[in-house]
Amino acid sequence: MSFDYVYCAELIDQADGLLITAGAGMGVDSGLPDFRGPQGFWGAYPALGRARIPFEHIASPSAFKTQPRLAWGFYGHRLNLYRATVPHAGFEILRRIGERLSEGCFVFTSNVDGQFQKAGYDEQRIDECHGSIHHLQCLDACTNEIWPADGWHPVVDEEHC
User: Fold this and answer.
1) What end-to-end distance do the CA atoms of the chain give, in Å?
2) DSSP of 55-75, one letter per residue?
3) I need a surface site. Which of 64, 65, 113, 136 has the fewest CB within 10 A?
4) In the predicted structure, residue 1 carries a pLDDT above the cut 60
5) Strands, DSSP E only, in 72-159?
6) How far is the CA of 124 from the CAs of 26, 34, 127, 150, in angstroms?
7) What are the φ and ψ backbone dihedral angles of 116, each rounded to 5 degrees?
8) pTM of the shown model
9) Exposure on the CB side of residue 41, measured as CA atoms within 13 A
10) Is 115 helix (H, G, I), strand (E, B) or coil?
């Protein structure tokens, strides 16, 4: 069975708006590792691979209490990586399609990497269901506020995370 691109284009032409739902595949195509897969995760973080620390253990609030230096190293490295990554051409293609529609486009993503914002999408039309690595918040629930991480430039020991 072949995919009918013409039919898809016709349906999009008839639409008022475009809802983009995206997960890890969008980031992977820009060169980011797939953190849910052990190969991508351990490939990006050899120190964590050697220690056999699974993604779920280091990507959790409890890691900041039990292994704070490692947790900050992991998140700091990811933040630096996401900041340096250039969104692939697919982001622009989808944005341009949405711009031609009367209601524009909306994004619902499980990604925390901020690539849609970096690609020029309206931030008010992006829902990041897992939050964003580009923000900081209090671990002890001292406030419900979050802060932009713009001014934080972590220095990370790449060898040891």
Assistant:
1) 46
2) HHHHSSHHHHHHSHHHHHHHH
3) 65
4) no
5) 104-109, 126-128, 135-137, 146-148
6) 20, 26, 8, 18
7) -65, -40
8) 0.86
9) 19
10) helix
